[in-house]
Each structure stands twice: as structure tokens, then as C-alpha cells.
Write a structure and sequence with these properties.
Shape: globular
Order of helices and strands: EEHEHHEEEEEE
Number of strands: 9
Distance between the termini: 23 Å
Radius of gyration: 15 Å
Helix content: 10-25%
Length: 145
């Protein structure tokens, strides 16, 4: 499904269905190998979320107005998210948590030093926010491209 907002921004909603008949891989526009390197795994959800994709988008738009207005495309996808690297305050590590991943693409994010005195990492053009699909609680964010 693709929705065009009043500002002309395209929103693409991916429902986390499986692309292959064995149902072992979720449909996603994310790079699964890059996520794996960050200790993030996506799975296909079976239960219906309490929030709609539009509600998840509204939450992240309010969290980050710059991304909301500057992004060329926004993808909202419903996934079960496991993240064994980032402990979320008052939540813990994510293990198959039903989430929306709201991705803002086409941004011009500045480069940064990955370690003090180390090499400068290239700037990114995308930021991803992970929102609990049942409570609307922002959980983590990540960028890798």
C-alpha cells in the first residue's frame, strides 16, 4: 500500500508478510544482513497490532519533526523485532516484540566520528524508529545507510 500525504511525501506500508512460501523470512525493505550485524532480527507477526501504521507514523513524526518534513519517502512496516544489543530502559532487551519500524529515507544526516580520534563515518540518508505496535512506546532507533 502506498499513501501520498498532503505534503507529497510517499508512505509505503509493508505489513510484515512473508515473501517466501516457507514463511521464514519477513517482507521488508530493510537490509537483513546489515540488521544482523547490529544484532537485530525481524520475524513475521501473526497477531494484529493495536495501533495502525498511521498512528505509528504520527508518533514518530512528533518525535522527529525534521525527519518527518525532510524525508523523501517514509516506510512503515509491522514486524516482530528482536534486538539483543540494545537494552531499552524500563523494557529490557527486545525479543519478538510486535513493532512498527518507521523509516525516513532521503535525508541528509551529517557524518560523525565513530570513536574519538577515529575515522569519520559517512553521513546517512535514512533513520529508522522502532515503536511498540501495541502501546506506541518508542523503543529504539537505528541507521545504517
Amino acid at each position: 500500500m502506498k499513501i501520498i500525504t498532503a505534503t507529497g511525501t510517499a508512505i509505503v506500508i509493508i505489513l510484515g508478510l512473508c515473501a517466501w512460501s516457507d514463511r521464514s523470512h519477513p517482507i521488508t525493505h530493510q537490509n537483513l544482513k546489515a540488521l544482523s550485524n547490529m544484532h537485530i532480527k525481524l520475524s513475521s507477526p501473526k497477531a494484529k497490532p493495536k495501533l495502525t501504521p498511521q498512528q505509528a507514523r504520527e508518533i514518530t513524526d512528533n518525535m522527529s519533526p525534521y525527519d518527518a518534513t525532510e524525508a523523501k519517502q517514509v516506510f512503515v512496516e509491522y514486524q516482530l523485532v528482536t534486538d539483543t544489543a540494545t537494552e531499552v530502559p524500563h523494557f529490557g532487551f527486545l525479543h519478538r516484540v510486535p513493532c512498527y519500524i518507521v523509516s525516513y529515507e532521503g535525508l541528509h544526516l551529517p557524518s560523525h566520528q565513530s570513536t574519538p580520534g577515529g575515522p569519520t563515518a559517512p553521513g546517512h540518508t535514512e533513520v529508522n524508529f522502532v515503536i511498540d505496535a501495541n502501546t506506541g512506546q518508542p523503543l529504539v532507533s537505528f541507521d545504517y545507510r
